[in-house]
Design a protein that fits this description.
Layout lengths: L1 E7 L2 E5 L6 E7 L4 E7 L2 E6 L16 E5 L5 E5 L8 E7 L2 E6 L4 E5 L4 E4 L15 E7 L2 E6 L4 E8 L4 E10 L1 E6 L5 E5 L4 E4 L4 E3 L3 E8 L2 E7 L12 E6 L5 E7 L5 E8 L4
Antiparallel strand pairs: 1-2, 1-24, 2-3, 4-5, 5-6, 6-7, 8-9, 9-10, 10-11, 12-13, 13-14, 14-15, 16-17, 17-18, 18-19, 20-21, 21-22, 22-23
Length: 273
């Protein structure tokens, strides 16, 4: 059965589709929760175990990957032999789980046995290391797209696997998050700081707020919207979800009161048992 999973500052939520009504809280207490990926080990969700408003130094953050079975019950966790700091998007492709670790300007890779670190755009020798704010990894065919937010004009970078050779670079969005293909084949992203969705062919759609997190069902899209707020206040805001029809009309809005930021939205397979 298909379910809509949403990660927020405080919770992992399951919503009914297409009503967008809350069905259950899958997990709570290890936020910020971010990327979502289906893996051979179960449904994987990135958990930072530190809120944006936390007084714990970001240097000391130790994130992990939480695993859930097909009934969305906790099924263990995956840790790394090095700190997973400022976890963002994750994906499973080419036999491995890939995790964006923005704090260190790197992507961690886990194949079920071994970990390795990839720094596609390098890493400064001294802090601050997060110069490109890598936040999205998205597989397409035999390639892996990496989105560099860049704290401004963003770039989508396409790497050929397994060699991780750069084969394409596209300027796309501003402080961007998420990547997907539009029905016409154009690469699209959330131009988050501008409050809109954009594509490489010039298509754009205003959403307001800070769009981040996109799930596709055919030509329909569910988009997460966070409030624009000062950093220390972001965990205490109210997010929402927009159901966007193929013609761009917003047909449904779901309020997520008390959940803070909306970070990722994905359709996943599960039994809801």
């Amino acid at each position: 059965m298909r379910s809509l999973i949403v990660t927020t500052s405080h919770s992992v939520l399951m919503l009914a589709w297409p009503s967008l009504e809350l069905e259950s809280v899958v997990h709570r207490g290890d936020g910020l929760y971010y990327g979502i990926a289906q893996t051979p080990w179960g449904l994987a969700i990135a958990a930072r175990r530190r809120l944006v408003s936390s007084r714990v130094p970001l240097d000391d953050e130790r994130g992990c990957i939480l695993l859930f079975d097909t009934a969305f019950r906790p099924a263990g966790e995956i840790g790394a032999p090095f700190p997973l700091r400022d976890l963002h998007g994750i994906t499973y492709v080419a036999g491995a789980l890939w995790l964006t670790c923005s704090f260190d300007n790197q992507i961690a890779r886990f194949d079920g046995k071994q970990w390795d670190i990839w720094q596609p755009l390098g890493r400064p020798a001294l802090a601050p290391f997060d110069v490109n704010h890598l936040n999205t990894v998205w597989p397409e065919g035999g390639d892996l797209w990496v989105l560099a937010h860049n704290f401004g004009a963003s770039k989508a970078l396409r790497y050929r696997l397994p060699g991780r050779t750069l084969v394409e670079s596209i300027d796309l969005g501003n402080q961007a998050h998420d990547l997907w293909r539009r029905p016409d084949g154009a690469l699209a992203t959330c131009s988050s700081i501008e409050g809109r969705l954009v594509a490489q062919d010039g298509w754009t759609l205003a959403t307001g707020g800070f769009p981040r997190g996109v799930a596709l069902d055919g030509d329909r899209a569910v988009v997460g919207i966070s409030e624009l707020a000062e950093r220390d206040s972001r965990d205490f805001t109210a997010g929402r979800l927009l159901l966007i029809e193929p013609d761009g009309a917003i047909s449904r809005v779901a309020e997520l009161a008390g959940e803070g930021l909306v970070l990722a939205v994905e359709f996943v397979e599960g039994s809801r048992g």
